[in-house]
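Dear U.,

For the methods section draft, I wanted the exact inputs and outputs in one place so we can describe them consistently. I've listed the two proteins in the order they'll appear in the manuscript figures. Please don't edit the token lines directly; just add comments below if something needs changing.

First protein:
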Amino acid sequence: MTISFTYVKESYLFNKKTFIYPGLIESSKQADDLTPIWTIQVTDREASICQGRAGQPVMSSIIEGVHKDLAQFTYQGKLTNGGFDGTRSTWAFIDFDGQRYDWMAGMMQNCWKLEDAQGATIAQYIGMSRDYKIRGTLVLQAKVNEALIALIHLTTKMLRYN
């Protein structure tokens, strides 16, 4: 079972909102007639995700650290965290059930694989496209709950090569 999502920036100039659409979209023009299922809003040190184009955040995060390499996530009153793990060279986070996940950098820049503690691949993120407004695609390869989906989407905004 795989489920795909495409991340599309709100505009070419501003990067404050990213809309998440179901399926694979090859050009941002295709997204014009679609309704996003999630929206990520980012400010300097905060990010949130809501369902649809607008609304109350389902999850929010505060980004910390000199290099913005730590984050604290809030979902329905519960807190968890994530950050860059220098010993493993991964971007790791703990879900709201206490399970650890690691974003592993791929061989190509902006390609990442999310693994659980047992090494099973949960998702893959490719953060590049020929269309400048398309920020990337995410392919879920395992069944996950809403909290983990929102956490996965939010953590993709924090991935970068250190």
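Second protein (the one for the lower panel):
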Amino acid sequence: MVRDVSSSTKHTVDTAACAIAAACLLGVLLCAVLLLPLLRRKDSLFAASGIGRSITHILFATLVHGVLMAIVNTVWVINVGVLSLPWARYFFAMSGYLLPIWLFMSNIRLALERLWLVQYSKSLRCAYVYMVYAAGLAWSSFFVAAFVLLNDAPDWLFWPFSLPGSKDRLINTLFLMGMAIFPVSCVAIVAIYVRLYLVTASVLSAARSEMIESDIQSSNESCSSMHVDESRKETQDAVAATVTQQRTVFARCVLMAAGTVVLYVPTIVYVMVRVLVAPDVANMDDLNVWLCIVLNVLPALDVLYTPMLIFWFQPEVRRLLAGHVINTH
């Protein structure tokens, strides 16, 4: 979180931390509710699919991330001194980067799984899945190297991202190289969902054209005006359905990409700019405190946003959850 702040500012930060901890715990509960049927029915067709496994990874990463954010904000409020311990500061600082990397890589995998299913009608190859997570693991080494080279524990600016608090050029260079994974991942996620929408729109447009051609052909072959009217009405309904599907796919792609961009990019940009411009964060004014509060809230909202979005857009998850509830009772 922050240090060297006045008592009034500490009260403001404490209030925000309490709200963040409560939001994280609620998100953790939602993730657990959705994860339970996926894990208990992991042999089901959906849970065993590439998309099902990707969603399981996302939910689990979000759950762990939410638990740690709730712990850190609670510890900050009760002020038991845990965050002053070097091992605790290093642990939470490293977790604050490794968990989002896992989450971002799982989101890239999910986007690729959706694209492969629409474009090639099959699941993403295991080799590509391994490449995605291997890239995240390799990029994590920059953070590990940066924090290992630090003589002092990382400065606690805010969670989930903490600054190195060093003017050493090598440490900051390694840190920024590690941070590059987040904008690269955001661009990749947006690009994949744009591609997914274009492919889906193309498939739906082709299907719509086939229906119209079929309608024209049947109209030419039919002698009954009643039959022609019925056929035309069916075609119009089918075309309207494809347009609705296209809009639904567009909304889904926008919301899936927006969650990652809106809730993480502001924090990522601030961290990178702060390291470049003012790496020593020991002195913090009220403006920075408010900024840190906002940038602490945004990633915490993802703990709520992700399970709600999965529940809303994945009918298979809802069916597994409903089946689990019915079987339980």
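Candidate sentences for the figure legend, describing the second protein: DSSP finds nine helices and no strands in the chain. The mean pLDDT is 80.

Thanks,
Y.
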